[in-house]
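Q: For a teaching handout, I want to show students what a protein-ligand complex looks like in token form. Below are the inputs, and the small molecule is zinc ion. Please produce the holo structure.
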Amino acid sequence: MVPKFSPTLLGSSRFKMDQKTTGTLLELAAKSLLSNELAAIHALDELPRALFVPLFIPAFVGRHKEILKAMVRVWPFCCLHIGTLSVQGSDYDILEAMIDGLQLLSAQNSSSWGPKLRLLDLRHDPKCSIICSEMKTTFSSCSWSCAYSQNSTLRTEEAQHSVRCRGFDNSESEPHSALETVELLVDLSLDGTLRTQQFLSFLQSKVRQSSGSLHLCCRDLVIDNISAHRSMLQFLDPRCIDHLQVNQAYLRKVNHLVAQTAHLYSLRHPNIIFTYFVGRHFQTFLNGLGKLNSLQELELSALFLGDRLQRLLRCAGLRNLGSLVLPPQLKTLNLPFCSLSSIDVTILSQSSQATHLRQLNLSHNQIFSEAYEPFQTLLERASGTLQHLEINNCLLSDSTLSALLPALSHCSCLRVLSFAFNPITMPVLTRLLRHLTSLRELKHVIYPIPVHCYRQWDVRDSLDRRQLAEVQAQLKAMLQAVERDDMLWTTHSA
Ligand SMILES: [Zn+2]
Ligand SMILES: [Zn+2]
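A: Here is the structure, written as tokens, with zinc ion included.
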């Protein structure tokens, strides 16, 4: 028997129900509806607006593809975000079904009603609710609408406005009506797997079919093999990207892509191919970075920077000593495996960026092989903001760590400290623990296995696990004694 849905009962305010009862009734109604796909799809025509979100959530969690597709088709709000709902790799089916529900220009029939959904947001974003609160009653743009692409709803509206102001109407050159433009927000990871390829092909065919009325807006893009994804990159507007990660690529290829972006917030380029400093491409890279005024996070690894950090931080060229390449308010700087020297740390410690840094990763650079003072200055200048510090495998010794303790103790915002793979002894490690327990924000410390646990320092096979277990037990007891059970001390492999 088909479950009967009664919007009159659920939508009525005659019943004085507390929130818990209402929640239970809504859950029961949703459960009942979802148990029969056909009945649920049929009921959507009568469903009050207020019940769309309560039904959408269990439909998404329960992977009801057909119902989701039908809901997108008649969604009564201008935006739909999956927000906090989790998406795994195998969920491409769900995402495709929802995209299929979009009423695009070419798919519209001649009916007089127009679909209201103007923005479908398939990004996992804990800051987003399913619909934007101010949009519940009025129809206008969603606050997450694309602000940069020429194909976005906002830009289309502007273009139409200027056409109207100029007082003529050339239907050949007029862009689509803003009411016909739909934005599809997706985060993409071009990882080369078969299922990802299928999803990308699906997206490309949708964009082609839409005759320009679908704006595919990718804000977070990860590319594993830049050469293999040229065709997909042509479908994306680089101006929309704010987070870009390009894995294992030549600097010149990254330069080409970065030059087309305009509003990057985060640029990650791990495992740069051709690690040695290459003058022309590096200079082009610096010039490109200098134009990214919104950049807050930069990660470069395996780029040979030895003694040249100054060029990255301060000047775009010798004739232009005054202009900063990186914005002074940069929050994240990750430079592992970049052959940094003590001179580079000196430059960083004196830079205007030092006092704003929240995350710093200088791992796998021999920055303590000469002097520790530059790093000490850097810590002191960053102490008001630094939350995450990684200095793994930096030739950090007992004496250097002891000298750095006062500066480290002043980093009151520090939450994560990682200094694994450094030759530290147990007495210095316990001394460090006593100092760091006063930092209330510090919750996770990744420490090096003390040297006495190895028969031969840092040779994995020579690790004495019994000795390591004793170290772990001793540190745990010390944390309990000072009531810092909330602090997690682990070794890198734990
Ligand atoms: Zn919205
Ligand atoms: Zn966009």
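A: Two things your students might notice: The pocket of zinc ion (ligand 2) is lined by residues 146, 148-149, 152, 215, 217, 237, 240 (CB under 6 Å). The mean pLDDT is 83.
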